[in-house]
Amino acid sequence: MGDAIRVAVLGGAGRMGQMLIRAVGESDRAHLTGVTERPGHAWIGRDLGEAMGGAARGVVVSADPLEVFAGADAVLDFTTPEATLENATLAAQARCVHVIGTTGMTEAQVAALAPAQRHAVQIRAGNMSLGVNLLTLLTKRVAAALDADFDIEIVEMHHRHKVDAPSGTALMLGEAAAAGRGVRLADAADRGRDGQTGARTRGDIGFAALRGGDVAGEHDVIFAADGERIVLRHVATDRMIFARGALKAALWGHGRPPGGYDMLDVLGLGG
Ligand SMILES: NC(=O)C1=CN([C@@H]2O[C@H](COP(=O)(O)OP(=O)(O)OC[C@H]3O[C@@H](n4cnc5c(N)ncnc54)[C@H](OP(=O)(O)O)[C@@H]3O)[C@@H](O)[C@H]2O)C=CC1
Ligand SMILES: O=C(O)C1=N[C@H](C(=O)O)C[C@H](O)C1
Fold first, then answer.
1. Could you give the maximum distance between any two Cα atoms of the chain, in Å?
2. Dihedral angle at the C-alpha atoms of 264, 268, 269, 271, nearest 10 degrees?
3. d(Cα 109, Cα 88) in Å, to the nearest integer?
4. Contact 162, 216 (CB under 8 A)
5. Which of 16, 38, 89, 258 is most buried by its number of CB atoms within 10 A?
6. Of the ligands numbered here, which is closest to the C-alpha atom of 209?
7. How far apart are CA 11 and CA 44, in angstroms?
């Protein structure tokens, strides 16, 4: 394994957890040293390979994140907001790179992640794909070039199991649009229309969330004016784009000074 970094996957039985395990397995720069799951999960105590329906891999799925963090240089965390908050403290104690893909965190939960950044490299993004991160830059540019005659609407669609809305990606795109406009998203966001809503408020950034089937993730940023419409679109057809992005982040973060980073930093696209 030579210089390969030691990587653990948190929430290994999840949709993303299984992709992350695959991505680490495909890499010659990383090797899997641990996997966690929620206490009480059916995979706990089982060999990972067997739990996934294949050959034994010599990694036992653990409900004890402490021992898993202790044996890892980096942890990949696509779990729940509550688990991610606990993991941030453990990553700081173990000085692990903490790659956070978890979405649906409240403002207070995001703020609570900050103290851990004094001791650990923490890389967080609502979307780890190259395409979406590029789209945030395009969105910011287009929003900066247009005035509020162009109404901005962000429409996203995801699989039926998704539990948070708007998606983390939609919020990233909303932040980018707001930054381009020179406003705060918190002041401009319209996150739910139903019933007698009244006419659209000029300058609002609207969100709509669709859920159904097995959609991996689709996002449109619409700039709609009288007589014309610009649509910027990203379509994910395979969750491996998120998993490979997360592993790229772990490799990038290994050996860096502690702090809070995002995927634009990892991809070298930050300002
Ligand atoms: N940033 C990005 O690029 C992407 C982010 N995501 C985000 O990642 C998150 C996970 O998505 P997805 O994989 O679809 O969801 P899943 O529900 O399939 O996976 C989450 C996994 O975490 C497990 N889990 C829950 N609590 C703990 C705990 N305390 N310790 C260890 N494991 C735990 C769950 O177990 P159990 O089911 O038993 O509760 C489950 O197996 C979501 O927030 C999603 O939005 C998804 C794709 C890309
Ligand atoms: O839950 C998902 O599946 C996804 N979540 C992320 C989000 O909330 O934007 C990223 C991706 O769109 C898939």
1. 63
2. 90
3. 11
4. no
5. 16
6. 2
7. 11
Show the domains of the chain with their CATH numbers. Answer: 5-128+239-267 (3.40.50.720), 130-235 (3.30.360.10)
Ligand nearest to the CA of 69: 1
Q: Which residues line ligand 2 (CB under 6 A)?
A: 103, 126-127, 158, 162, 167-169, 217
Hey, what are 110's tokens? 């995001």
CB 42 within 8 Å of CB 18: no
Report which DSSP code applies to 60. B
Tens of pLDDT, residues 200-238: 999 999 999 999 999 999 999 999 999 999 999 999 999
Tokens of 145: 């070039």
Q: Which residues are catalytic?
A: 158, 162
Alpha carbon 189 to chain centroid distance? Answer: 20
Tell me: ipTM over 0.85: yes
| SS3 label, residue 207 | strand
Residue 166, ligand 1, Cβ within 6 A = no
Indicate yes or no: pTM above 0.95. Answer: yes
Q: Whose CA is nearest to atom 12 of ligand 2?
A: 217
Q: Could you tell me the distance, in angstroms and rounded to a whole number, from the CA of residue 2 to the centre of ligand 2?
A: 34
Closest ligand 1 atom to residue 132 Cα is 3
Ligand 1 centroid vs 228 CA: distance in angstroms?
39
Q: 184: which 2 tokens? A: 């705060």
